[in-house]
Amino acid sequence: MAVTLRGTTPEPPDVRPRLTVLSGPSGVGKSTVVAHMRKAHPDVWLSVSATTRKPRPGEQHGVHYFFVTDEEMDKLIANSELLEWAEFAGNRYGTPRAAVIERLERGEPVLLEIDLQGARQVRETMPDAQLVFLAPPSWEELVRRLTGRGTEPPEVIERRLEAAKVELAAEPEFDVTLVNTSVEDVARELLALMDVV
């Protein structure tokens, strides 16, 4: 099997699904795994983050992100309307709390794809959340994936690699680790962890 589980196996799910948080270093394939998983199981709800960054070509408000002003983000933070938030590359990103809680209360499986800082905040506010770390097969493979994208200048790649070292060191903070050697296998394992099979 191409997937390697490290750490403890999570407890059997409660009657209501737990919030599942997927995190890992940039370039490890989080978005690819989530897209593959949601193609097979569109019933898995992926939270849409709010961000202060400007939309990229093709991105739609409410689909890819909720694009908000700095003032709107300040208000969301001040009113505790975000489950977590973080700043990256001069922009802020956050997970709207109400939508997550609403879906969990309806019994829907909920997935957050967020960074390490956000995962730590979720652990504090929702200790029963299941934190899943997506790891690369090796450091060399992660470097290859980041440099192979060809979409970012060398200084941005260098920053991402430095951040990846910190993120990889935080792996023991997570409940489960999935090693991304196969998108299909990791997506299947993630669905099983969420009790969506």
From TrEMBL:
Question: Predominant location of this chain?
Answer: cytoplasm
State the compartments where it is located: Cytoplasm
Query: What is catalysed by this protein?
Result: GMP + ATP = GDP + ADP
* Family recorded in the similarity comment: Belongs to the guanylate kinase family.
Q: Where is this region: Disordered?
A: 1-23
- What PROSITE patterns does UniProt report for this protein, alphabetically? GUANYLATE_KINASE_1, GUANYLATE_KINASE_2
| Descriptive protein name | Guanylate kinase
Q: Which PANTHER family match?
A: GUANYLATE KINASE (PTHR23117:SF13), GUANYLATE KINASE-RELATED (PTHR23117)
Described by its record, this protein's role is as follows: Essential for recycling GMP and indirectly, cGMP.
Does this UniProt record's set of keywords contain Cell cycle?
Answer: no
EC number of the protein? 2.7.4.8
Q: Which residues form the signal peptide?
A: none
Q: Which key words are in the record? A: ATP-binding, Cytoplasm, Kinase, Nucleotide-binding, Transferase
Sites binding ATP sit at 24-31
